[in-house]
Amino acid sequence: MGLKLNDRIHSLNVWVARTGFGKWHRLEGSGAKRERIGSTFTTEIRAGLATFFAMAYIIAVNASIMSDSGGTCVCPGTEEDPVCDTDPDYLACVEVVKRDLVTATAAIAALTTFCMGLFANMPIGLAPGMGLNAYFAYQVVGYHGTGSVSFPLAVTAVFVEGWIFIGLSILGIRQWLARAIPTSIKLATGAGIGLYLTIIGLYGSAGLGVITGATATPVDLSGCDAQYAADPELCGHHKMTSKTMWLGIFCGGFVTALLMLYRVKGAIIAGIALVSIISWPRTTDVTYFPYDAAGQSRFDFFKNVVAFHKIEKILAVQEWNISSIPGGSGQFWLALVTFLYVDILDTTGTLYSMAKFAGLMDKRTGDFEGSATAYIVDASGIVIGSLFGTPPVTAYIESGAGISEGGKTGITAMVTGICFFISLFFAPIFASIPPWATGSTLIIVGSMMMTAVAEINWTYFGDAIPAFLTIAVMPFTYSIAYGLIAGIVTFMILNTFAYVLDKLTNGRIVPDNYDKRDGWSWRMAMVEGSADDDSLPDPATEPKGIKGVAMVFLPPWIFRLVVDRKKRFWEADEADGAKVIEANASTNAAGDGETVIEVRSEDSAASSKEKQ
Hints:
two-stranded antiparallel ribbon; 25 helices; mainly alpha; 8 strands
């Protein structure tokens, strides 16, 4: 029986591979020009399901975080309750916004992930970005609209950013900008956002409620029940007594961590589901549906189980009157630039790392197949997502779950997109996930983002101090933008001073460990890699003249159109892989000064050597 089943699966894989669908996605055995070796239809389906279960938590987490901004709801505010924490009408409006965001998150994730698979043929999932959603909700718009920019203006900034991204992607500038950022700042940005998410996970509005604001100190231990949380004095006598907090810590935190410890697929969504199911019965002390107006409203919606919730309050609410911002338009442009910068690092970095993980990188060009299409799909998703009322869409590192299951083609992403589409009809379930179910998830995601710290160059202070400031300022100021500004400005001041002094003294006065710095140069900004990476062209062998400069700066399609003058400039050919030369200049053992350049073809195992 098992043998017959395997034969049928094999026959199905062979049949699909030979169809136009299989050839488009370059399945093994399809006869496509560049087949993805080891890819089969059934493996891609399994990989797509794995990616969905790794990413599905974003539906609930993004809705929980973004709804804290209040969306388009207007808080009247009183002296006793300036942020409308106890205003039933306002909270009812926020609850509708949260349901809107469940639909919006699932819809944009379904659309962009499916398109990433269909058009770019990449096994990568996309959804509203973690970190960017927190920056949007708590720094730009502010908790319940207390920030300097309104929700409509904030999604307008995202809309504009998306169009800028489309332009940068078409012109090939996006990759160049990502490489132009110093390595230490790139690595520190991910770690800083990780700590930022951790702070949110520890707070009460979208997390566990372990910490709270204080007067004597910036933060204080909390863990109070809801009836004591508003009064600092009462909360001081009831610290760490919240039952929902302990439920989130043990069933959401430790259970998820243990499952991840043993590499159980879907560990994060399993932890969220466990805490949510425990919190749904109305007769318990940890219920998410208490017998009050807000609880009854949630429960009435939850009872539908299967229902499509139409976006009511945040659909296409863009506002173009930037002059209406209190204090000027500076905050709007700061938000736009921050979205743009973080997205460049986040999405570009994730796409590159996932392409490398899937074995789809071209070491000669430092790029991956279909990169321009992938960037345009992502940028288009940002524009459409802003109309849905979501923060910028980005590629997800959780795509690695599907890739580790064998996903190599866009079919993986298409399956993930279909799963997100199905989840649209289960909005009552996803909208009823309590914040203490997702708080531990934010902390765990933050811990995973901190792994980048190990790669920072802590030896040279010119790299270490800017990186540390980037990491520290983000959570302490509750702002990704301020962390980036602190890190970049510090890097520029320290390293510009060191460089000028080095040149003025002809190398006699240099900082300690200056020779171990990551460094930065125009060549590193133009070619993917690091200072010690063999993939960087040697100055003696890299292309010369205008054509050489164009080869580095221009995206392949523009190079083919302008320089090579090809009529079918949109089609890549076999020679494209060798256009950026992988040069490794070395002197041979005989010491004859011979420089060897090795150029490998994408479609051939053979290599040729040219002597200069």
